[in-house]
Amino acid sequence: MNKVTLAENIYWVGVVDWNIRDFHGYVTKRGSTYNAYLIRDEKTALVDTVKYSFSGELLRNISDLVDTQNLDYIIVNHVEMDHSSSLPLVAKQAKNATVIASEKGKDAIIEHYGPEFNIQTVKTGDEIQLGKRTLRFVEAPMLHWPDSMFTYVVEERILMPNDAFGQHLASSQRFDDEVDPHVLMEEATTYYANILMPLGPLISRKIQEVVNMGISPTVIAPSHGIIWRSNPGKIIQSYLDWSKFKSKNKLVIVFDTMWGSTDKMARAICEGAASEGVEVILMKLRSTEITDILTEILDAKAVVVGSPTLNNSIFPTLAAFLTLATGLKPKNKQWGFFGSYGWGGGAVRNMIETAKKAGFEVHEPGIEVKYVPDGRFEKVF
Ligand code: FEO
Question: Into which CATH architecture does domain 4-243 fall?
C-alpha cells in the first residue's frame, strides 16, 4: 500500500469499497470507503477498523507499518459493523491491545462480538498518552448511535469523528484538496441529508461543546470518504447551516403516476410555481432515487407530494418515500399533497394523516382529481 500520511507517523489504513451501491437503503452511487487510522508513537493505536469483508486488506495495511501483534490500543469510536466488524480479527492478532470505547460502546462490542476483549471505557475529556501524542475522547451519543464518540489527536489537531463529516465517495485520492470540490460537497450533503438530518440540534450542540473544549481541528478525518485538511471550517459551517435547516425559495415536487393523471398535476404545479420565480425540482419516483430526493429536500422551503390512489391508499413508492421522509424529520418546510383517483380516493387523505402524525406543517386541503385532470387523456409517458 502507498502510505497515506495525515501527519508524521499518523496514517490512513482504511479501504475503498468501489462497488457498494446500496448502504442499507441509501443509494451510494459513487461507492464508499471505510477509514481507519494508525498512530505510531511509543505506543501504537489503531483508530477504528473496517467492514468485515475487507479485513484482510486492513490487516495488510497495518502490517505494512507495524507488527500487528504490537498494537497497544484499538480505538472503537462506533460499533456499527462497517467500522467494527474486523475488530475480532484484529484483536486476535493484537493479543495485548487494549480496546478503547465509550461505556455504551463496551456494551455494544460485547453484544455484537462477545465478552473476550480487554476493554477500557473512556468519557468525554479522558486522555491517553501514546508518547509524544495525546488522544482525547469526546462522547457523541446518538451521533448517530448511543456508543458513538470522537477521537482527537491533540498535538496534531486531528479530529477523528467517525461517521460525522463523512461522505460515501470512493476515490483513489484521500484529501479534499485532491478531489473535485463539487462532487465532494454533493456527497457530503447527500450523506448529511440521508443519515444525520434528524440530529440537527444534537449536532449544533456537539459542535459548540467541542469548541468549548478548545478543540480546533486543522484536519477532520471521518470514517467514510475524503479527509478534510484544506479548510475543515467549511464542512463544520455546512453542518451548522444544515442543522438549522436553512432553506431557499425552492419547491420539490415528488410524485408517481399510474396513467399519467398525477404526472399532469405535478407538471401543472411545477409550471405555476416556476412562473412565480420559484426554483422547482420535479422528481418522479421510479425514475429517481429516494436518496437524491431527500438531498434536494434538505434546503427546500416546500415539498409537494403526489400519489395516485391504489387500493384506496397511497401508491407503494410514495408510501416508501414517506416512511423515509417522516423518519428523517425535515424541519422548516411546508408540505402539500395532491393526487388522482378513479372512484373512492384515499391516497391524499392517507398522506396528509401520515405527514401530520410526523409533525409536518401541512397545507390543507390537498388537491384531488377524479380520473383525468382536464377530462382529456394525453399520452405523457
Ligand atoms: Fe458508518 Fe454508523 O456507520
Answer: 4-Layer Sandwich (3.60)
Q: What pTM was estimated for this model as a whole?
A: 0.95
The answer, yes or no, to whether any atom of ligand 1 lies below 6 A from the CB of 168, is no
Cβ–Cβ under 8 Å, residues 108 and 134? no
DSSP for 96-153, written as a single string: TPEEEE-HHHHHHHHHHH-S-S-EEE--TT-EEE-SS-EEEEEE-TTSSSTT-EEEEE
Yes or no: say if 159 and 150 are a contact pair by the CB < 8 Å rule: yes
- In this prediction, residues 258-265 reach a mean pLDDT of 96
For 149-178, the DSSP string reads: EEEEETTTTEEE-TTTT------S--BGGG
Q: How far is 62 from 373, CA to CA, in rounded Å? A: 64
Q: Does the C-beta of 82 come closer than 6 Å to ligand 1?
A: yes
Give the distance between the most distant pair of CA atoms in the chain: 79
Q: What is the pLDDT of residues 135-169, one digit of tens each?
A: 999 999 999 999 999 999 999 999 999 999 999 99
Question: So where are the chain's domains?
Answer: 4-243, 248-380
What's the CATH code, domain 248-380? 3.40.50.360
Assigned C-alpha cell, 183: 462532487
For ligand 1, atom 1, name the residue with the nearest CA: 163
Sheet arrangement for strand 73-75: 4-7, 10-12, 37-40, 44-47, 73-75, 98-101, 119-121
The band of 374, judged by pLDDT with boundaries at 50, 70 and 90, is confident
Q: Is 224 in the pocket of ligand 1 (CB under 6 A)?
A: yes
Ligand 1, atom 3: closest residue by C-alpha: 80
Residue with cell 421522509: 325
Q: Which one-letter DSSP state was computed for residue 368?
A: E
The residue written with cell numbers 486492513 in the block is: 58
Amino acid at 371: Y
Q: Answer whether 280's CB lies under 8 Å from 267's CB.
A: no
Taking the C-alpha atoms of 116, 150, 239 and 83 in order, what is their torsion angle to the nearest 10 degrees?
-30
